[in-house]
Write a structure and sequence with these properties.
With about 240 residues, the protein is of the alpha/beta class. The chain is built from five helices and ten strands; from the N terminus they run βαβαβαβββαββββα. Helix 2 links the parallel strand 2 and strand 3.
């Protein structure tokens, strides 16, 4: 392949918060690709609209279905498999033709290394970061470096658990490291997110700040409204609604 494939994250939802690198990639692209549900407009395309070069060809890739079919069913899985195989073949043909192809996606995992205000690494979405696109396949899985051992439905009170270990791609820092990730389109999800991080610590080191109390670290279901709160009156045992 003589072309170039560029993954472009469009940021947390505000077009003015897209990175300079992302806007530069869009300006240089020969083709802009974006994903959307059939019959809908791509959120990523809407966010990036003001940064697209006039006249740049676009290629929308429409998912055959989302929640219309059970995610653990053969119909759902086969439809998505065929969709991704077709999308990959389409992109490969564009790259073989020598084009620079920019694929725009929502959601930016960001890593701030030794600077709390400037991200050093910016990704293209939660599913991409945890290596679970699209929608984690609708069934649990677990591998040595990444996995999603608990997969719920997109309803209030449901539980999900995903992980990724950076043993193959370490993130080194000297003073501080902060990781952030978008919570739904433009951070409009009302879910409760809890995370845990492990690192190798050199000695000696300054005292660590105290951990929050145990009560503050136990997950609770907080009904806040917004996407993800359908069926909010039903919650699993072990989660107490506030």
């Amino acid at each position: 392949m003589s072309g170039r494939l560029i993954g472009v994250g469009v940021g947390p939802g505000d077009p003015e918060l897209m990175t300079l690198k992302a806007t530069r990639a869009l300006a240089q692209a020969d083709l802009v690709v974006h994903f959307a549900k059939t019959g809908a407009t791509s959120h990523a395309r809407t966010i990036a609209a003001g940064h697209l070069r006039a006249g740049t060809p676009e290629l929308p890739l429409f998912y055959p279905m989302t929640s219309e079919q059970p995610r653990d069913g053969i119909v759902y899985r086969e439809a998505l498999r065929e969709f991704y195989d077709g999308a990959a073949a389409t992109l490969a043909a564009q790259l073989d033709a020598g084009r620079a192809v920019a694929v725009i996606c929502e959601g930016d995992p960001m890593f701030f290394i030794d600077d709390p205000d400037k991200p050093l690494h910016t990704g293209t979405g939660s599913e991409d970061y945890f290596l679970g696109a699209w929608d984690f396949g609708g069934a649990p899985y677990a591998y040595p470096l990444y996995g999603a051992p608990v997969i719920g439905r997109e309803l209030a009170g449901q539980r999900w658990s995903v992980y990724r270990f950076h043993l193959d791609s370490p993130i080194t820092f000297t003073k501080s490291m902060k990781a952030t990730i978008e919570h739904g389109h433009a951070n409009d999800r009302s879910d409760n997110f809890y995370s845990v991080a492990y690192w190798y610590q050199t000695e000696p080191h300054m005292p660590f700040p105290p951990l929050p109390s145990m009560d503050d670290r136990i997950p609770t279901l907080e009904i806040t409204g917004g996407p993800g709160n359908e069926g909010a009156g039903q919650h699993p045992s072990g989660l107490s609604p506030k």
